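Objective 1.3, modelling of assemblies. Example input:
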Amino acid sequence: MAEKKLELLSLDENELTELVLSIGEPRYRAKQLFSQLQSGVAPEEMTNIGKATKEKLAEVSYFHLPQVKRKLVSAIDGTVKYLFELADGNCVESVLMNYHHGITICISSQVGCRMGCKFCASTIGGRVRDLTAGELVGQVIAASRDTGKRISNIVMMGIGEPLDNFRNVVKFLRLVNAENGVGIGYRHISLSTCGLCDKIDALASENIPLTLSISLHAATDEKRSAIMPVNKKYGISDLLAACRRYYEKTGRRISFEYTLIEGQNDSAADAEKLAQVLNSALRSKKDTMPIHVNLIPVNEVKETGCCPPSKAAISAFATALEKRGIRATVRRTLGPDINASCGQLRAEES
Ligand code: SAH
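Predicted structure (tokens):
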């Protein structure tokens, strides 16, 4: 059987150097190739390499950008939601959001997800496969080419659990940060995780100063395990200890996501318990680590039967946290007319 072809978008400059040398091309080609590939130009469209080189490249490698299969644009706020098709026909979603500080893209990290959170549409059919580094950066490149605009921030909050695809995600982070490529600073990247503690430690050792978001969603193990099966493996105290280590090692503040579900985790007692758990696990008299909780009114997904609390209950929850020294913000809903929360478009398609 023929050897598997290399995916060009997944290769960094060093790997491209190896590739060009292996097909008898000069070393400087790697830099040329890297910057063009990472701006979404396929080898066959490149004007500065000859036909013979293109043929040699095509024998050992391939180039594929995620293709726009569906695109929904919110009439309310301009949020754009893409359903992207990958080389093997699988689909993932990405969402582009306009904020005053620039354009943010929310990207997917896996086709499906195996974490099983009860309120989430992405996990309904389980995990199909991990995305490659090239497919991760490909979402950023394809959306930027489609809109003709520069993307300045990335959030890894789409379909999938990024830390369950650790190697490819770390590779992607370095690729998308490379000066000669897309060039997005680590401080403009957020990664959201349901709480795989061993991988949080591993990420802390990678020297990638991004913003970590933890999907907490409940303040007791009993409640968290009921909605997030991952909590049975890594309970809240283990998770918060990993957060504390991450903060100590990187100096980066961590934000917590708390999806509010009516009748399940939205009472005054829940808010009080949340503040108490965070304060006691993360702060001491000497050191007050900044804590930020982002409250997300749950997006109704018809399969899950979860409803958002009333506006009054949401703001009471935020006030209760603030009173106990925890900064709380309520996530603005973008693209409500296009069902912009992740997993819903892919679910519709299958
Ligand atoms: N697997 C990662 C990232 C993907 S989910 C994680 O768990 O963090 C991104 C965020 O959206 C998570 O906080 C997730 O819990 C939340 N989320 C998922 N489904 C939701 C829904 N129906 N309504 C509101 N937030 C949801």
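The first strand starts at residue 6 and ends at 7.
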